């Protein structure tokens, strides 16, 4: 979309990203540009207000169900949220979390990308990986992301996607490539430093039903085997729906996440023993079904606060 009217720009972005107020300290017409790329569970936006001088001020209402990643391409912006101030320039980013409001002041030459990402998508992937179980969504550590240079890496990925869309023969028209790009963006975001939500307290204090304990016993007996939820259903004699509901109510997690937690704990015990046996990280990880060593290391650190190699290292 292109317009020279600030009110049209505000109404347009309010409907797409978040309801907000927009103020300009100039009476001259804007040269607003907005381009959008829609993907599964996320969207990427190029935004430029194109004011000749002065500052663009924006006050947004609370986000309900998504993250907004603000990534500057030129100029400078200041974001204020809950009394904290962040100044961002190219090579940095700012994250608006679900449930947050924010106020921003942007320089006249400010252009940026906004990545809108469905919070439920991140939450479900974290839950599948055993990194959360209910509660609030993860909170990204903005200062650490910018200090470590990871914002620049994410910006590079997103800019490359934008460049592809403007080429005469974009690969995003190919479904397989499009799905690959979606996974790359989501995984890049999930790899950013963040504080993961803690499992909620149990909603019930009554003993867990027999099938929960039987399922956990089956998991313990098959930590090195290739099993799935269907195997658990057959082993305990209840439906898939009943099994999932039971784990949510009495363990505040899913069967798959519980199995992963047990395997991570078993791998940690094996790493401690390996100080004497001489086994390496790869052998132990693959024994317990972790064939992607990078992902294993991230999940291991998220749970125990140490990398597998740090646990293995003799004291």
Automatic annotation (TrEMBL):
GO terms for molecular function: DNA-binding transcription factor activity; sequence-specific DNA binding. It comes from the Bacteria. It holds the Pfam family AraC_binding_2. InterPro entries: AraC-bd_2, AraC_XylS_family_regulators, Homeodomain-like_sf, HTH-like, HTH_AraC, HTH_AraC-typ_CS. Residues 213-314 form the HTH araC/xylS-type domain. Signal peptide: none annotated. Keywords: Activator, DNA-binding, Transcription, Transcription regulation. Gene3D superfamilies: Homeodomain-like. This is AraC family transcriptional regulator.
């Amino acid at each position: 979309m292109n317009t020279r009217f600030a009110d049209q720009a505000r109404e347009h972005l309010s409907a797409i990203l978040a309801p907000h107020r927009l103020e300009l300290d100039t009476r001259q017409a804007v040269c607003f540009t907005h381009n959008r790329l829609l993907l599964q569970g996320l969207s990427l936006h190029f935004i430029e207000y194109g004011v000749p001088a002065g500052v663009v001020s924006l006050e947004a209402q609370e986000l309900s169900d998504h993250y907004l990643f603000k990534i500057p391409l030129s100029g400078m912006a200041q974001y204020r949220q809950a009394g904290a101030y962040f100044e961002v320039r190219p090579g940095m980013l700012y994250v608006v979390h679900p449930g947050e409001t924010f106020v921003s002041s942007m320089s006249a030459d400010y252009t940026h990308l906004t990545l809108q990402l469905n919070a439920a998508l991140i939450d479900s992937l974290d839950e599948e990986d055993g990194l959360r179980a209910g509660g609030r969504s993860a909170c990204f550590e903005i200062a650490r992301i910018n200090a470590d240079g990871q914002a620049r890496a994410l910006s590079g990925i997103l800019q490359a996607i934008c460049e592809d869309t403007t080429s005469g023969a974009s690969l995003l028209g190919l479904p397989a490539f499009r799905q690959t790009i979606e996974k790359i963006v989501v995984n890049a975001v999930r790899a950013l430093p963040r504080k993961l939500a803690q499992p909620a307290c149990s909603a019930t204090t009554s003993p867990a039903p027999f099938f929960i304990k039987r399922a956990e016993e089956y998991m313990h007996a098959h930590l090195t085997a290739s099993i799935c939820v269907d195997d658990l259903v057959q082993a305990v004699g209840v439906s898939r729906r009943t099994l999932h509901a039971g784990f949510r109510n009495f363990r505040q997690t899913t069967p798959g996440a519980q199995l992963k937690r047990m395997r991570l704990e078993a791998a940690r015990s094996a790493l401690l023993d390996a100080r004497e046996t001489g086994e390496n990280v790869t052998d132990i990880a693959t024994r317990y079904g972790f064939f992607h060593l990078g992902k294993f290391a991230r999940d291991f650190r998220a749970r125990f606060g140490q990398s597998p190699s740090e646990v293995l290292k003799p004291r």
